Amino acid sequence: MGVDLDQVEKEVLDAQEVADDQGNNVRALKAAVKAGEATKAQLNEAIALLKKLKADLDVKRKAFDEAVGGGSKASSVNKEAFRQALQNVLLSRCFLINSFAIYGGVAGLFDYGPPGCAIKANIQSYWKRHFVLEENMLEVEASAVTPEPVLKASGHVERFTDFMVKDKVTGECHRADHLLEDKLKALLANPLEGGKRREIEDVLARLDELGAEELGTQIAKYECKAPETGNEISDPYPFNLMFATSIGPRGDTKGYLRPETAQGIFVNFPRLLNYNGMKLPFAAAQLGQSFRNEISPKQGILRVREFTQAEIEHFVDPDHKDHPKFAKVADLEMLLFSREKQVGAVKKPVLMRLGDALAQGILENETIAYFIGRVFTFMTAVGIDPNRMRFRQHLQHEMAHYACDCWDCEVECSYGWMECVGIADRSAFDLKCHAEASKKEMTAWIAYDKPKFVEELVVEPISKFIGKTFKKDAKTVTSALKTMTEENALGLKAALDAEGEASLKAFCGGGDFKITKEMVRIERETKKVSGKFITPGVIEPSFGIGRVLYCMLEHCYYVRQEEDAKEEDKKTVFRFTPLVAPTKVTVFPLLQREEFNAVCRKLCDSLIDSGLSTLMDVTGTTIGKRYARTDEIGVPFAVTVDHDTLQDNTATLRERDTTSQVRVGLEDLPGVVRDLVNMRTTWEEVQRRFPSQGGAEGGKEKGGAAGDYSLRCP
Amino acid sequence: MGVDLDQVEKEVLDAQEVADDQGNNVRALKAAVKAGEATKAQLNEAIALLKKLKADLDVKRKAFDEAVGGGSKASSVNKEAFRQALQNVLLSRCFLINSFAIYGGVAGLFDYGPPGCAIKANIQSYWKRHFVLEENMLEVEASAVTPEPVLKASGHVERFTDFMVKDKVTGECHRADHLLEDKLKALLANPLEGGKRREIEDVLARLDELGAEELGTQIAKYECKAPETGNEISDPYPFNLMFATSIGPRGDTKGYLRPETAQGIFVNFPRLLNYNGMKLPFAAAQLGQSFRNEISPKQGILRVREFTQAEIEHFVDPDHKDHPKFAKVADLEMLLFSREKQVGAVKKPVLMRLGDALAQGILENETIAYFIGRVFTFMTAVGIDPNRMRFRQHLQHEMAHYACDCWDCEVECSYGWMECVGIADRSAFDLKCHAEASKKEMTAWIAYDKPKFVEELVVEPISKFIGKTFKKDAKTVTSALKTMTEENALGLKAALDAEGEASLKAFCGGGDFKITKEMVRIERETKKVSGKFITPGVIEPSFGIGRVLYCMLEHCYYVRQEEDAKEEDKKTVFRFTPLVAPTKVTVFPLLQREEFNAVCRKLCDSLIDSGLSTLMDVTGTTIGKRYARTDEIGVPFAVTVDHDTLQDNTATLRERDTTSQVRVGLEDLPGVVRDLVNMRTTWEEVQRRFPSQGGAEGGKEKGGAAGDYSLRCP
Asked: Which of B93, B100, B239, B261 to mutate to test the interface with A (most CBs of A within 10 A)?
């Protein structure tokens, strides 16, 4: 990433501008030729220049693409093969299972088998630690079954839809935009006349913006058919993605499974504000299942019908979005892909310090910048390659109905760049919707830094005179006076000042009461105001746990290259971080002998006592093969009990990625491994602390590069 | 529990027997009087004796009840007041929130607010440690959305129902059995003629057995009306408790939200068996949401429509239910309430060693006994009072449609004895149902201890002769021979032995082929069989996490009595175990001064770094009041930073239940508290290790007894 991208980008932009200008020249000349005001030779000369400029632009664009580099260089064939190999491992090793497989399965539903489940639990528990504990958030667990009024208020009943088309023969359903997208991309893969190509590219760019009608027009124009069958398809129509159900036995209370966990926080806002001592800002968090009845789910566990979300709603005074801990993340460098970069000529993200991005106005405020930083450190801790992760700002039309700004944390995997976390500014949208629908206050009191002084009209009924005169009607009169408009109050004051008395009826309606001057004080006064009620803004980092998990699996999976290994001997490795690894440590007896086994069993017990998931491999194969087997399932540490152990109570501790080994006392082992797993120490530190041990593996192996697509499992 | 219950019980049983005999005498005499074979005087004498015997039985029963004692002595008024006080704390302190409260709430749906959510997460994570990690279980996470065929096979579509009645005017729905139960209990509360009383008691005892028809008869007989309105009610009819939905956009795939997590394990059995190397026994575990559309949920979070289950399915060879780790739990003592004790005269559980219960045949096998022991240690670790917990065996008619034996872990709370964990022997029911419905193998291979030798009839077609003769029909002939019944094979053999040839048609049907002796070998042979395929039995410990949590809250909540405190000064305490406490430690600066605050902030950071949820209380109130405040929310440890801290870097560490204090170095504090929370050390050990500190609280306080109902919060 050392190339000066800004310089290269500027060259592209300059070339684009020159070419655009010449394009305008050509159009003008065409008109002039028609009007007899220019010669055909002049026009031809201009067209030749335009061609040259465009070729130049293409060269510059390619140079830029190469300078940026990244995983996109890998061919789609390699990606497909890599994914297939990984998929095979994930299914055969029970990381994932197709739900209800014995009944033929259900599209979009996946189960996590033992290692997948353990990884997921580890990611979730680190999420709670990194966010809920360290940021002192208020965690809640709300119902997934949600009554209709809540989701009507939030806009989901009306707007949480995708456009669907049906195969006119089989009735099979498809997402309209996906069909059109596939068709257009297929067309672009063939040679096309320039105008046609630009037209298609334009539709593709606007795909998310298209309403039912234009989507229908485009589908008809490009003659989309049902995939596989090739049958005619229906016009597109909206399909609500929520699973509907009925709550209670009467059958008259409609409900849905929540499509996001966020609403469970918003509806509890008044209680949570109260719990927080009525103070802003504060963040609430929730981790749980959400449900979306996708039209035709594909892409493995990246688009599923039931998934785990981890959402944070940070409630904040919209006028004070500074963050006290921003300095802690300001120096983090990451790829930012702003709206400007996306719509500009050069569609590439930029590696930046968060502090600089904020200073340059690329990020709007400290709070959103701080969360981007925290998401970045979370993602790298669970094993996402920082070079294949970027934060991309949503284009205007991309944003959900509730958002006013949004940065997605996208991770590159074999499917392309996948949104794993969305960091949205939902403004006050949700709280206002719920306040209006529920008729409950959803506001917080904000104290001004210093009190403000405002002038206001005070109307003060003097009860002793009113009571004396009106007796049982006193209340009516008092209330009428108190609820007068400012205009009427001033009118009454003028009348009383002039006449000493006035008929209340003329100013308030209602009964005909004669008011005298002594009965009411009407005056302009300056009042001290120390704060105000506001509807808080909301910054929402929202995680799709399954997506984070899957992308991490892709980034951690590789083939270990041994210098002179044959193709069939190549060994696959998951380089899980110790934090997320499903099994933390494997224990081997060097030989199948009871004295070794006894030591191993005792060691396993003490490792498990320390909360470490532990395996014991007592098979008689070579240590090298047993190491390879633990590498394959991503166990970060292995302990071998050998002859020396029986003498001096030490054993060999081996680290998976470096394959280096140290010698550690048996009683120290659980503590050392626990500290490694909890990131309280590093392998380098352990290597300094304990004597190193000659490698039994022959030192021929070396780690592969992160997610290198040229490496494939057999 | 020191009384000789067996002796007292025997006395009751003897008295019961004598009274029963006399009852028979009276009935016989009545018939005899009618037939003129006995005098009325004889009958009256017999009746008088019966009355005396019954009075004697009553006295003995009461004596027994008093000997057993327990929480049931507390009056229902106290229970109600205790519950109301606790409920107020739980709602006001945000442990629980009525879901969607701003929209009026939904019956049977509760959210967990921050402290409730933290406790729940702690219970769940200890469950995973105690069971999944320490017992090496295979954890899975399966879909909640479930297609209909799965739940048809499991029997839930047909049988997972409750009987419902409707208010004929308002349409309001009620559980038929609950209405009848309430009505009968109300009747019993009044004076009743003996026969009538026994009749009602009999219906109450059989309540769970009643089908729609008899339930209807009884409801009519006892004139049950709709509660509150007093309206007429409909006949009872079954209502399925599953939430129904539709999967996918076509609307033709019916689905349900799972009513239990267990099915997600059963359908994955073949994959899990494979993951476990095809070996039995093994256990799979799942923790997740289940959904039941209860007819009219009451009892707070004890009966809700969405709840967290933690289920274990232990797959085992039904002929080998021994457990290698049983010895580890054999000495645990707990209250066991067997079926015999429940149907006997004296309906009381017995305090027993698990080892003894197994030896006496009260528990059927080691596996079920081992799990009862593990459940017991789990429950006490999370804060359930062992004296208010019992294991009750289901009566025959109580068991779910899938169970053949079941022991409930019941916990006493203000609602009575609540089932929190069920330990059911589901036998092979579920696997067999799914095998039949899915047509997939759901069996495991069991190797015999030593091979068995069995005689079988072998039919071996000799292909070279068959091929030569029949050419293209060879396959048909071979197949016909192979699939013959044993009887036909013996017939064919006899024919071939006698004639040297035979028509295949006579023995197999199909084409008319002439078989000669050389074409087939038919012989009895002894075969060595090393094992067999079986459908495993399943032992299922199933936890309702919300119920465990609620009962724990009741057991942990009490009013701390200070010797001379006024009523309004009484302080409530949650005596949460450090393991489940939502906040582990509070940090106080002795005075509101920046030098104290700075030390506190640094200490908080290092406590949080150690994974401990930490609060800081910087208010200027007295230390005593601040301690009381942390006691009220159940924080087990408090650290006070004072003048000495600034000199020697030590601070006071105070334990909530004993209110005793020690002096610990700041750098040791995070480790000490972490070890206390993870149960790696005890407060007694900490007191031995560190110097004690004079109590700033004056030592006037003492802990209340567990869940004592006489103690109430203001």
From this structure: B100
